[in-house]
Write a structure and sequence with these properties.
single chain, 11 helices, globular, alpha/beta
């Protein structure tokens, strides 16, 4: 008899705060198809991107019924036809998990394309291995897209997030200074304590003016924004002439905007970043190995928090949504 396969199942996408549409159910054991590997996932983080999927289905990109889950770590159970790269029992992660096909990591067993699996180095803990994809590769990707010269400035919002802290560390590794926007005074002190060079409290300080002071009038070379909405024109105003603004989140669901002057006279650009698209490039395997090395060297350090049982998925989602959380929430089992 096949072992039980608990999954988180969505029959609809909903903005409802009660999360009534998020259910844990028993499902049949998936059978790996051509080029796939069956993985027993046992630890997976709850990311803001997962919450967006649960609420919106990523604007029609995800089918129903669906199982969310953008990251996780597990062990190989068996290979499907044509798959032979990994051995039974080996620890693996994925870049990405097949959540856009409705088969995310919030399941105990997932059939994953072999080409997307990553052999996890023995030096990485399960908590780190479960977080290989979303934050580390997004930080790496956005920083490389900006190609900021040493000594110049990167401006970022939501700087106390796990991703924000990793950006501070990786930018420093590359000789790039960060200007970090937060909304709470205690967050200023928190980031100062981990070596952030410059922190702006958006509730009490004028963002463009402070950026001008910090940079000696040069303004930020580039910017990344997890919020969007009302803060976006302030971030755009803080950029140098021809600077690039990258939107990678939408904590404020209202549209981003920029002045005509920023886009025309200043020739600044606005673009989006989605790791699922960016990673699919000729250098994919090389990028993965570079990010694994940065994790092993602890240049990139995930911030791990509380783990919840599989059946406590709603509590885990609520904890992920809690302001000032500062560490990653996990589902285990």
């Amino acid at each position: 008899m096949a072992p039980p396969n608990k999954i988180v199942k969505l029959d609809e996408f909903s903005m409802s705060d009660d999360l009534a549409h998020v259910q844990v159910v028993d499902a049949s054991m998936p059978e790996p198809k051509q080029g796939e590997v069956l993985v027993n996932a046992y630890l997976r983080p709850v990311n803001p991107t997962d919450v967006i999927l649960i609420k919106t289905g990523w604007a029609g990109l995800v089918p129903l019924p669906s199982t969310p889950g953008s990251e996780g770590v597990g062990k190989v159970v068996k290979n499907g036809p044509g798959a032979s790269k990994f051995k039974e029992g080996q620890r693996v992660a994925a870049a990405p998990w097949p959540q856009f096909q409705g088969r995310g990591s919030w399941a105990q067993y997932v059939a994953v394309p072999e080409k997307d699996l990553i052999l996890v180095p023995a030096s990485l803990s399960d908590q780190t291995a479960a977080q290989i994809f979303i934050n580390p590769m997004t930080v790496y990707g956005m920083l490389h897209e900006h190609n900021i010269p040493k000594g110049e400035f990167l401006l970022q919002t939501a700087a106390t997030s796990v991703l924000g802290k990793q950006m501070i560390s990786l930018a420093k590794h590359y000789g790039v200074q960060t200007i970090n926007i937060v909304r709470r005074q205690e967050a200023v002190q928190e980031l100062n304590s981990i070596g952030a060079e410059h922190v702006i409290n958006s509730e009490t300080e004028d963002i463009p003016q402070r950026v001008k002071e910090i940079t000696g009038g040069k303004m930020a070379y580039g910017a990344i924004d997890a919020i969007g909405g009302a803060i976006s024109p302030k971030v755009m105003k803080s950029l140098r002439k021809s600077g690039k603004y990258i939107l990678y989140g939408a904590l404020d669901p209202s549209p981003v905007s920029a002045s005509n002057g920023d886009l025309l006279a200043q020739t600044k650009t606005m673009t989006g970043f989605l790791i699922y698209d960016w990673i699919e490039q000729p250098r994919k395997q090389e990028i993965i190995q570079e990010v694994l090395k940065l994790l092993e060297q602890k240049v990139l350090q995930p911030h791990s928090g509380r783990s919840y049982k599989f059946e406590e998925v709603k509590e885990a989602i609520n904890e992920c949504n809690r302001a000032g959380r500062g560490a990653k929430v996990f589902l285990e089992g």
